[in-house]
From TrEMBL:
<protein>
    <submittedName>
        <fullName>Uncharacterized protein</fullName>
    </submittedName>
</protein>
Amino acid sequence: MESIVITPKSKEELEKIQRYLKKEGISSKKLSVEEKLDLGLSEMMKEVDKIKHVSKDNIDKIFEGL
């Protein structure tokens, strides 16, 4: 199954989203900053495997929104 990542604007918004998901019976996991960086690095490594070269623009796109 695919997943989605939601980045709330505030702690209050995060808590509101978590309450909603729990109420609806939807599983969720809060990611730490380190875990988000790990995801970004993982995406970058996938790109490297495909093209053998990653530009600064590609790196910026990967970390955009984290």
